[in-house]
Design the sequence.
């Protein structure tokens, strides 16, 4: 079987198991969903009627099959917290916000991490190299909410480059929306970039000590050419897996940063729904986050196989 076909089958099976386990977990939560929706003043007849309409009187396999069909078709139910609004509408409204923030932060992570790592390797033990080590340590250890507050204080209050908490919707002003997203994206990107720098620098230093680098130097190849042409590609292979994890975490919604900057994204919707015990929205968002993480890691594995066919050949040899 083709590797990519096999990987796609594994991904679909994983997504199916994630949906099944999530559905089962929410079914085990104590309490009656119908009673929670109607309130304590509801009569037994009203509760029984709602339970029937919600399919709670059916067996677990029947409930799961019905729910899965509704989930695939986009019929996700209605929220009890947001005045009976459609869950699909709530998520669709916030997806562009979260994806824009995630895209900005992911691009900033790559733009900061890769050039900085290459420059520090070129100038080992220099001031720049020591600065990279310090930045990496600080970025990894600094809590996200503190970094967000720090950026608000520096760029929002001191330099007045944006108004903290004054979120601008993309429907009202696209340019204002993008400009507001820059600093929250940096708050997400800086810790991720620090982690990537730590991994990539270590990987580059290991690659530059290998035999093929010494062979290239003996043939007259210059250091910058070897670094760009050979070492960087090989050193990036373990970093791709890390970037897949970062992408999954970022695109699923940053709960902390969205709260700090007042951004109405997926993460903030999850917190609001949990506080309101809106289990229909919470269940859908948990599955959404799990799906994003699984898909991001699958894409990272596929990119890794494309960049390094030896892994695919090793998998064929083992089977």
Sequence:
């Amino acid at each position: 079987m083709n590797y990519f076909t096999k990987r796609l089958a594994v991904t679909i099976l994983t997504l199916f198991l994630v949906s099944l386990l999530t559905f089962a977990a929410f079914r085990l939560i104590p309490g009656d969903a119908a009673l929670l929706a109607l309130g304590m003043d509801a009569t037994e007849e009203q509760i029984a009627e709602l339970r029937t309409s919600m399919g709670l009187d059916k067996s677990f396999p029947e409930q799961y099959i019905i729910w899965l069909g509704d989930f695939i078709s986009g019929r996700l139910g209605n929220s009890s917290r947001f005045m009976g609004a459609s869950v699909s509408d709530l998520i669709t409204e916030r997806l562009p916000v979260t994806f824009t923030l995630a895209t900005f932060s992911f691009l900033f992570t790559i733009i900061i991490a890769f050039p900085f790592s290459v420059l520090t390797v070129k100038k080992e033990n220099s001031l720049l190299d020591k600065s990279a080590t310090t930045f990496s340590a600080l970025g990894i250890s600094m809590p996200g909410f503190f970094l967000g507050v720090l950026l608000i204080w520096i760029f929002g209050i001191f330099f007045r480059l944006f108004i903290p908490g004054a979120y601008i919707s993309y429907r009202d002003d696209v340019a204002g929306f993008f400009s507001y997203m820059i600093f929250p994206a940096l708050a997400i990107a800086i810790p991720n970039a620090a982690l990537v720098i730590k991994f990539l620098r270590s990987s580059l230093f290991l690659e530059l000590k290998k035999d093929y680098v010494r062979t290239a130097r003996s043939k007259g190849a210059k250091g910058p050419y070897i670094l760009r042409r050979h070492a960087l590609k090989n050193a990036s292979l373990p970093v791709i897996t890390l970037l897949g994890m970062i992408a999954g975490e970022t695109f699923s919604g940053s709960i902390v940063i969205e709260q700090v900057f007042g951004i109405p994204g997926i993460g903030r919707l999850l917190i609001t729904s949990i506080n309101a015990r809106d289990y229909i929205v919470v269940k859908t968002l948990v599955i959404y986050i799990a799906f994003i993480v699984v898909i991001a890691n699958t894409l990272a594995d596929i990119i890794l196989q494309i960049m390094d066919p030896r892994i695919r050949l090793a998998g064929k040899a083992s089977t």
